[in-house]
Amino acid sequence: MSDSEGPWKQIPQPKRAPSSGRFWLWLALLLVAGAGVWKLADIFPGQVASDWDRANIMQLIVVLGIVSAGVVFGRRMNFKVVLRNLAIWAGVVAVLVLGFTFQDELRDVGLRIQSELIPGEPISTTAGELVLSQSADGHFYVIGEANGARIRFLIDTGASDIVISPKDAARIGIDVTKLDFQRTYQTANGLGLGTSYRLNSLTIGPFALSEVPISINQADMGTSLLGMSFLKQMASFEIRGRQLYLRAH
Q1: Model pTM score
Q2: Strands 224-226 and 149-155
Q3: What distance in Å separates the CA atoms of residue 211 and residue 221, rounded to the nearest whole number?
């Protein structure tokens, strides 16, 4: 066996890209970055108007130069890998730019998805506006807080008052056994008995009310009701498709 085929045979090292080629690639990257900054300044005039803005740009260019030099002048460089990484980062930047550009539209989509996934959870789209999605039974429900306790309400335009079920009244901390149910109510199932009560606070999404008159029903109910006494305190309410929009004054 010849010496060239012995155990000490030298493994040929992969050829490195010429350093001059790497330098020109690095310089081209910096020129492209500079052209991009110049184009952005042209598209958005007045954004670079102070020494602080110019200092930030210079800092970013220095960081870009250091990072790109590490990529280009690394010990081993595979141009396919470099191009793939550049394409990935370009895609990331494009996604971020699109996300920032359409942030309002994407926010609305996200809120609608949240409303569908969590029925009854109040979703505030803008200041003073609440959106509820229709449930599978065709009604609109919302989760609010009565005296700090979470209560599930049915939006009922046929009810004149805010009506709390005995079970929810107990959740609030009311001893229903000590209540005097002498008031007669007209309900969908006929006449019912109840009593008047006043909540210290009632919060539905962004809407916070204090000293709220309500009724507590004597008979058990499937859910508490938000009737017209609540809806009349809204500036408007309307149904569009499967969404109910509540707007405050």
Answers
A1: 0.53
A2: parallel
A3: 23
Neighbours of 221 (CB within 10 A): 18
Question: Residue 78 corresponds to which tokens in the numbers above?
Answer: 């595979």
Q: How many CA atoms lie within 13 A of 20 on its CB side?
A: 0
The torsion angles phi and psi of 219, rounded to 5 degrees, stand at: -80, 155
Cα 171 to Cα 148: distance, rounded to the nearest angstrom:
10
- Among the listed residues 12, 32, 28, the one whose alpha carbon sits nearest the alpha carbon of residue 20: 28
| 108-149 per-position pLDDT tens digit | 666 566 555 555 666 666 667 888 888 878 888 988 999 999
Start and end residues for every CATH 2.40.70.10 domain found in the chain: 117-247
> Cα–Cα distance between 185 and 72 in angstroms, integer?
81
Q: Place domain 117-247 in its CATH homologous superfamily.
A: Acid Proteases (2.40.70.10)
Contact in structure between 132 and 118 (CB atoms under 8 Å) = no
What is the distance of C-alpha 166 from the center of its chain? 35
Tokens coding 156: 């009922």
Q: Please write the tens of the pLDDT for every residue from 58-112.
A: 777 777 666 666 655 655 556 677 677 667 777 776 776 666 666 655 556 665 6
The full DSSP string for 186-234 is EETTEEEEEEEEEEEEEEETTEEEEEEEEEEESS--SSEEE-HHHHTTS
